[in-house]
């Protein structure tokens, strides 16, 4: 009798972790690689400044340490004035990521605010907000950013964050507006309205939670934009040059002629870090895209199910596999497949769309 | 042509918004632009001081509305004031010298990237999983690399180490710009590496978008019908599938233009190419506000014009747009 209790509880406990694992396994490979890569950078941002071997601004006056190649003491070499590149990189990753995440949060919040408001108010307000988004989309962003930052004081990060966020919302606002318009007319919203829920409650608890994935994708895109743009702006010198971000590292490397002097260890690591950070976000987003649209998936991966190939890989849907006349002798391969799709086997084991030719 | 007229009205509104932003930015910003200019010219007379004040709109001659109207009037007459960093050259002259460089280089490179990327995208979409498709992860990496970093790497490898290309600038030293072969050949030689950088970094975006639309289009029934008729696959790919997949690509062209412009600005800095991007950054870093603002307006105007041209092409290519359905 006493055994009954554990028996009923154990399966529930066992069942939980595999379901989690299954969700991870079902993610497209691209999304997995992207998530792991991004995780590494977040880790570097968190513990980087703690494990950094030197103060990034410390200028070692030792004579041999001006633009010294990588060595045991300085794993990524030193700069012109004897600063440790590795320490700068570790601190720089944190600052760059911090800025990008903050911009992402503020700009996404603005997107949601404008998009949902626009779709909900409708009428003239909708027209005005949509026009505003479109105008900001069509005005080239970087020149406007340069003009704005040219006037602002270059002391802290605040100006850069606010300006980047202030120009980063229109695309998301448009997408979220469109999605809100389509959700707004569904039955569960009508039901919520009938029960007397206020508009704000419907927005906060019915509409926004229903487009979390869209908002998340938009957030990833905005972070990507913020990384690229902030690094580019810092590279031009339009930022607080006394702070250590990946962009200012590149700025100093370029202005101190690291390139001409062959000091690759000075400018390759920050550039590579930016590129890898960007790639991880792109991969994450394409992975999320493919999760939603199975047709875009990698053609080779698509035929695997639980790691096994279901069918031999047929050549891609090209008609004349053999010599030219063969085409006229019988129906083309895809047509044959189309006809076959009406057979009993096809009914029991339906091919997915876009696979008709295989 | 209701579609084109509507788009035209939109671009006029966008241009007006850009001009208005340009008018209000210096008036809303902290810091005094006049002081920044004055600190460079310590021995200016009081009347010159007032002139600069009036030009930058900080002395507040008349009401805000009055200033705004006279500013609009100046913009319409291309009267952007006088550059403070290259005093006393008029801003419009300085900009006029740089425009041909950027327009030629960025225009050519963008068109090459667009056609190359679209063509590769057609291949990748048609042979889903084929060799062109396998290039994608590498191209995504290229896309995520900051423009200027790739430019720096190429510059180091090809110009500094291998000496295949010149290190920077738009033409060889000692040459006088003009329509003679020495100068033109030198200009072309100097533009190969910058153009290559633009093509390499922007081709991935076109390719990815075209591939995705192609894959969706190939699933359509009319493509199957074309195959059932036994049409040659080249005809199916280009005349049936790609032609329809091209429309979203064209519409994306307008929106992507902003990114192309940003990339080109940074690229010009790395290669010290004598275009409008380098001028913009030099103007900003030397606090030359009249020049900065005028360049912003010129770039915006160019982007809007390019968008309008794309819209006209879309109308010519897409009967749905002619019927007025495909509003952006």
**Rounded average pLDDT of chain A:** 74
The total count of strands of chain B amounts to 0
Count of individual helical segments of chain A: 16
What's the overall geometry of chain B?
A: globular
Structural class of chain A: mainly alpha
Give a quick account of the main beta sheet of chain A: strands, pairing sense, barrel closure: 2 strands, antiparallel
Q: Whole-Å distance between the termini of chain B?
A: 15 Å
Task: Provide the succession of SSEs of chain A.
Answer: HHHHHHHHHHHHHEEHHH
Distance between the termini of chain A: 56 Å
Q: Can you offer a commentary on this structure?
A:
Chain A has 16 helices and two strands. Chain A has helices at residues 4-26, 29-51, 85-121, 123-138, 141-151, 158-167, 170-184, 187-194, 199-207, 212-236, 246-255, 264-292, 299-302, 326-329, 333-340, 344-348, and strands at 304-305, 308-309. The longest helix of chain A is centred in the first third of the chain and has 37 residues, at 85-121. Chain A is globular. The model of chain A is unreliable at 1-19, 300-315, 318-329 and 354-358 (pLDDT under 50). Chain B is globular. Chain B starts with a helix and ends in a 6-residue tail after the last helix.
Compose a concise summary of this entry:
The complex is a heterodimer of chains A (358) and B (328). Chain A is mainly alpha-helical.
Structure keywords:
heterodimer; A: 358 residues; mainly alpha; 66% helix; B: 328 residues
List the helices and strands and how they pair.
The complex is a heterodimer of chains A (358) and B (328).
Chain A: H1 4-26, H2 29-51, H3 85-121, H4 123-138, H5 141-151, H6 158-167, H7 170-184, H8 187-194, H9 199-207, H10 212-236, H11 246-255, H12 264-292, H13 299-302, E1 304-305, E2 308-309, H14 326-329, H15 333-340, H16 344-348
Antiparallel strand pairs in A: 1-2
Chain B: H1 2-28, H2 33-38, H3 46-56, H4 64-76, H5 91-126, H6 131-134, H7 136-144, H8 147-161, H9 181-218, H10 221-228, H11 233-270, H12 276-285, H13 289-317, H14 319-322
Helix pairs in contact in B: 1-13, 5-9, 5-11, 7-9, 8-9, 8-11, 9-11, 10-11, 11-12, 11-13, 12-13
